[in-house]
Structures are given as structure tokens and as C-alpha cells.
Design brief:
20 strands, GDP-D-glucose phosphorylase activity, GDPGP1_N, GDPGP1_C, alpha+beta, transferase, three-stranded mixed β-sheet
Length: about 450
């Protein structure tokens, strides 16, 4: 059976129009100054070339900053570049609304969920048929994709430096032959500095994670060096609305509730990567952190994502702690919604629980829901997102088997991991030592009004 639900996708670009509707005329080519061949001849855009590093070091004295670059300008520069360009686009009127005017508050309670009233995010959108039972779907160039974004919405190109040091070129040519990665604004922002990271945009990759694309996202988090800057990913079936590979990112100057949630450690591999499970949080998920190199972390998490994709399991990813900590969250809300298993009370909120909501930043579209926001209501919504305990254990087994047999885990590690997982899934929670994992326990509490 093919499951479908009527979806109203978020508009992320000013060129996301109904089929056949013309965009603004802005120059040569097709007149839209887009990222397709018709408009890319002689195109020039800023380029931030990041320094490739092997690892990042988390801690209170320079958390998340590459060890050999602590306090150096290149890390801080990406922050200032992104925010400066983002504010420039805001002054030019490219956003659909002023997100800085949205009311935001921390919900009282143990978890300090964050509620935002964002009534502009669901206005003037086009209805579409969205298939929720296929995590992997082929790219369709006839539908909106990021090659149709206007060049004025692009902040800069993002790629590896050829010189071994971070570099910035304010007016670099766009090379279609080497499909550049772009950082563009989300014209329907959730928070300050909300951007899209679009790997190899001209290759027209569908929404599916691999090791290379995840590495780009981790590098961006590491280069920013700011614990308030997180990247998120939604798979198809987990409220991605555009089937063109992209990550989202924005700044929020308080901890996400999921970052403060208790975890229980499952295992630490010889590569240094630690794998834990969330405990006492409404959505079940795995937490990956550390690793001797960034590649270790990226390979471990991407192997898990590929496993979920190939087994048609929708999921969300949160990249936190400057790229040092990654949350992997399989979910089933859209499937329940399509099967009529979600209450009308929750459906009426029009909240689609994607990575940000699951992480504890509740983007609410009705004033009533914002005024009545409570920890109980947030928990009730997110509990519908989570896999059952039995199903989560089945999915976890698939993930650990995939990591073991990906070719990157040696025999000792593989045997240890499978043994640890077997113990984990047969040991009562109360018999496991639960620890709180957070590199940033006090991120400017109370900054939101």
C-alpha cells in the first residue's frame, strides 16, 4: 500500500512557486539568476574554503574548536561571515517575515522545552502530495529543487581549502564542472541565522545521507566553532519537504532539551567513537560522539543513516557540540498520521515534528498553542514521534550490525559492539548507570524572553 498525506511544505526559497508560475526577472539566462546552466556562465559568488582537520576537541576551554586552531580567526570568521551575509539578506527584504519578531519562551519544567510562535511559517504555501512510505525517492528535476534558487539567496560557496588553511574569497567563480556546495538562506527561518547547506548542488542529489555529505555538515559545525550553532537533517518520511540533498542550521543561544537529556552508554569503539542511547526523553534515539578522527564519526553515523535509508526507516539527525556529538532519531509520526493514528488534537496544531521539534524547539503556528504550551503538551506530541521500545531495539540491532560489517570496524571492535548491544537490549534500564552528557551545561540560561 502506498501511503500519502496532504502536505503543506515550508517555503525555503523565494523561487519555490507553483509549476508554471514565473519568478522575478533579474538578469540574463532564464531571467531568474538561478543556479542552473542558463544563469551560471561567468557567475561569481563568495567562497569560504575550510581547513581540513582530523579531529575536534570538546571541552569548556574552546569546545569544538580544532585543537590546533583554538582561538584563531578562521573559526570565528565563518560565524561572522554567515551572520553578516544573513543580516544583509534580511535588510534586502529576502525573507518572508521577520523571525526576530517571533515570540519565544522557555517552557517551565524539567526539560525546558523551547516554544516559538511562528505564524508566518505556514502562510501562502502550496498543497502537494507527499509520499511518506519511501525514504529513498529519485530526484525529480520537474519539482522545486535548489538549482532554482536565486543567486541572491546564496550566502557563499563552501569547500575544502587547497592550501591547508582556511581561506575566504569574496568574489570566486562558480565552477559547474565541480558542482559546488552552497550555503543559502532559508526564506522561512525558524531562528536567527537559519541557513541551508546544500552539498554539490549541481549534482542534483536526492535527500539521502552518505559519508561525504555528512562530513561537510560536520566540518561546517566544527569551523563555526560555536556551540549555539547546530545543523539538522530530515529524511523523506520524517518531514523533509524537498527531495534535494540539504541540511539546515541555525543559532539558538540556549541548550536544546535533547542535549541535556540523560543517556546510557552502550559501547566505545577502538576508533574512540562512543555510542549511547537516550533515556527518559520522549523520543528514543542514539547518540554518537568523539572518535579519533572526524572521519571515524562521520563514517559511523553515515553507516547508521544508510542502514535506515535502505530499510525504509524515516529519521532525523541533529549535529551538536560543534560537530562532536550527533543524535540519530528514527521516527514514525508521518506514518501514523497517514494511517489515521494521530489524534485530531495533535493534528490541529499543524506541527510537523522534524529535527528541531524533536530536539525540543517547538515551532508553533497558532497563538492558542503557544499560550497553552506546557511540558506535558510537548511530551505528548513527541511521544507520538518515537518508535515503540520493541521496534527501537529492532532498528538499533540493524544499525549496529551495519556499523560492524561496514568494513571500518575491526574484528575485536565488531565482536565487542555486538556483545555490548546484546547486553544493552536485555538489561533493565534501572540497572544501567545513567549519565548526563553535555559539554555545555550552562549556555546562557534565560536569554530568551
Amino acid at each position: 500500500m502506498m501511503l500519502k498525506i496532504k502536505r503543506v511544505p515550508t517555503v525555503v526559497s523565494n523561487y519555490q512557486k507553483e509549476d508554471g508560475e514565473e519568478g522575478s526577472r533579474r538578469g540574463g539566462g532564464c531571467g531568474r539568476n538561478c543556479l542552473q546552466n542558463c544563469c551560471l556562465q561567468d557567475a561569481r559568488l563568495p567562497l569560504y574554503a575550510f581547513k581540513k582537520v582530523d579531529s575536534i576537541v570538546a571541552g569548556n576551554d574552546g569546545a569544538g574548536v580544532p585543537e590546533d586552531d583554538k582561538g584563531e580567526p578562521p573559526v570565528a570568521f565563518l560565524d561572522s561571515l554567515l551572520l553578516g551575509e544573513w543580516e544583509d539578506r534580511m535588510q534586502r527584504g529576502l525573507f518572508r517575515y521577520d523571525v526576530t519578531a517571533c515570540e519565544t519562551k522557555v517552557i517551565p519544567g524539567q526539560y525546558c522545552f523551547i516554544a516559538q510562535l511562528n505564524e508566518g511559517r505556514h502562510l501562502k504555501k502550496r498543497p502537494t502530495e507527499f509520499r511518506v512510505d519511501k525514504v529513498l525517492q529519485p530526484f525529480d528535476g520537474n519539482k522545486f529543487n535548489f538549482t532554482k534558487v536565486g543567486q541572491e539567496e546564496v550566502l557563499f560557496q563552501f569547500g575544502a581549502s587547497e592550501e591547508g588553511e582556511a581561506q575566504f574569497f569574496p568574489d570566486a567563480p562558480v565552477d559547474p564542472e565541480n558542482s559546488p556546495t552552497m550555503v543559502a538562506i532559508n526564506v522561512s527561518p525558524i531562528e536567527y541565522g537559519h541557513v541551508l547547506l546544500i552539498p554539490r548542488v549541481l549534482d542534483c542529489l536526492p535527500q539521502r545521507i552518505d559519508c561525504d555529505s555528512l562530513m561537510l555538515a560536520i566540518y561546517m559545525a566544527a569551523e563555526a566553532g560555536n556551540p549555539y550553532f547546530r545543523l539538522g537533517y530530515n529524511s523523506l518520511g520524517a518531514f523533509a519537504t524537498i527531495n534535494h540533498l540539504h541540511f539546515q542550521a541555525y543559532y539558538l543561544a540556549v541548550p536544546f532539551p535533547i542535549e541535556k537529556a540523560p543517556v546510557k552508554e552502550i559501547t566505545t569503539l577502538n576508533s574512540g567513537m562512543k555510542i549511547s542511547e537516550l533515556v527518559n526523553y520522549p523520543v528514543r534515539g542514539l547518540v554518537f560522539e568523539g572518535g579519533n578522527t572526524l572521519l571515524d564519526l562521520s563514517k559511523g553515523v553515515s553507516d547508521a543513516c544508510i542502514c535506515l535509508q535502505e530499510n525504509n526507516i524515516p529519521y532525523n539527525v541533529l549535529i551538536a557540540d560543534c560537530g562532536n556529538r550527533i543524535f540519530l532519531l528514527p521516527q514514525c509520526y508521518a506514518e501514523k498520521q497517514a494511517l489515521g493514528e494521530v489524534s485530531s488534537e495533535l493534528l490541529d496544531t499543524q506541527v510537523n515534528p522534524a529535527v528541531w521539534e524533536i530536539s525540543g524547539h517547538m515551532v508553533l503556528k497558532r497563538k492558542k498553542d503557544y499560550e497553552e504550551a506546557s511540558e506535558e503538551n510537548a511530551w505528548r506530541l513527541l511521544a507520538e514521534v518515537s518508535l515503540s521500545e520493541e521496534r527501537f531495539q529492532e532498528v538499533s540491532d540493524l544499525i549496529f550490525e551495519a556499523i560492524c560489517y561496514s568494513g571500518d570496524v575491526n574484528g575485536t571492535d565488531s565482536e565487542k559492539l555486538l556483545k555490548d548491544v546484546n547486553v544493552e537490549h536485555h538489561q533493565p534500564v534501572e540497572e544501567v548507570n545513567v549519565i548526563i552528557e553535555s559539554s555545555h551545561p550552562a549556555m546562557v540560561p534565560g536569554i530568551l524572553n
